[in-house]
Amino acid sequence: MENPHALPPTFVQRLRQARHIAVLTGAGISAESGIPTFREAQTGLWARYDPQELASPQALRRQPGLVWVWYTWRRGLVQQAQPNPGHLALAEMERLAPRFTLITQNVDGLHQRAGSQNVIELHGNIMRTVCAAHRHEVTQWEPAPEGEAPRCPQCGSVLRPDVVFFGESLPAEALQRATEAAQACDVMLVVGTSGVVYPAASLPGVAKDAGALVAEINPQPTPLSSLADIVLRQPAGKALPLLVQAMKRNFFAQDGF
Ligand code: NAD
């Protein structure tokens, strides 16, 4: 699909008429910025490690040095990355919609760097570092001996990224706000998520049960595909700019979509 006229007309109409658009994004939207999804991260240097095992409290206890090296590598990727057309389109969509909530599972901060304002980070942000014991933010620390993680200069506990590890609870307030947005939206776009990480993966069902139209944008099928009313099998960097184009036509041209 190369132009907005090829989009399903009912979908375009629902988007244009929506009073509240909610979007749930996952690692796939940042893939086009060069940040690998967890599936892609299992190639190259880190091929023999399972990201789900590295991003866990157990791994931090058992292999703090390894977890730290992995997160340092991922932070480097995030620092080098730039928002792509998918991120930029969502920032623009926010300016076109009466109400807009962007719920992300991503920890890379690229939505905010693209200009999105109302962003709910369900899984934290990799660029913040906190002490494992008290969760206070730490900005400077001494390098650690090999095989260990650096320590908090105040309390001496291990430092960790301010992200939600597999098996940990999500920040309650963020999850509450995301659930409210899912209940209140007219349209939910589900972009670049494999739909297997809960509770984030339950939000499209919440939106659907509350009467929203749910659209999935993902080149691959996922467990969420069957509940989606609309499925666009395209990369986010292609599909989202088309959606914005389609919405803008209504604003400026009224050209009979
Ligand atoms: P995932 O890695 O499990 O799934 C990624 C999904 O994106 C897949 O379904 C894939 O088909 C799809 N995809 C790949 N390229 C795409 C593209 N160009 N456009 C649209 N979709 C595309 O990711 P997840 O569902 O987000 O769950 C994994 C967990 O790991 C989440 O917490 C996630 O945020 C985190 N994670 C975050 C980052 C990041 O912040 N950039 C990177 C890796 C993993």
Write the layout of secondary structure elements.
Elements: H1 9-17, E1 20-25, H2 28-31, H3 51-54, H4 57-62, H5 64-80, H6 85-96, E2 99-104, H7 110-114, E3 119-121, E4 124-131, E5 159-163, H8 172-184, E6 187-191, H9 203-209, E7 213-217, E8 230-232, H10 236-252
Parallel strand pairs: 1-2, 1-6, 2-3, 6-7, 7-8
Antiparallel strand pairs: 4-5
The structure holds nicotinamide-adenine-dinucleotide.
List the main descriptive attributes of the protein structure presented here.
single chain; 257 residues; alpha/beta; SIR2/SIRT2 'Small Domain'; 2 domains; 6-stranded parallel β-sheet; two-stranded antiparallel ribbon; 8 strands; 16% strand; binds nicotinamide-adenine-dinucleotide
Could you explain the architecture of this structure?
- The longest helix has 17 residues.
- The chain contains ten helices and eight strands.
- The chain starts with 8 loop residues before the first helix and ends in a 5-residue tail after the last helix.
- The strands form two sheets. It has a six-stranded parallel beta sheet, sandwiched between helices. The chain has a two-stranded antiparallel ribbon with strand order 4-5.
- By secondary structure, the chain is α/β, with parallel strands linked by helices.
- It folds into two domains: 164 residues, Rossmann fold; 83 residues, 2-Layer Sandwich (SIR2/SIRT2 'Small Domain').
- Helix 9 links the parallel strand 6 and strand 7.
- Nicotinamide-adenine-dinucleotide binds next to helix 2.
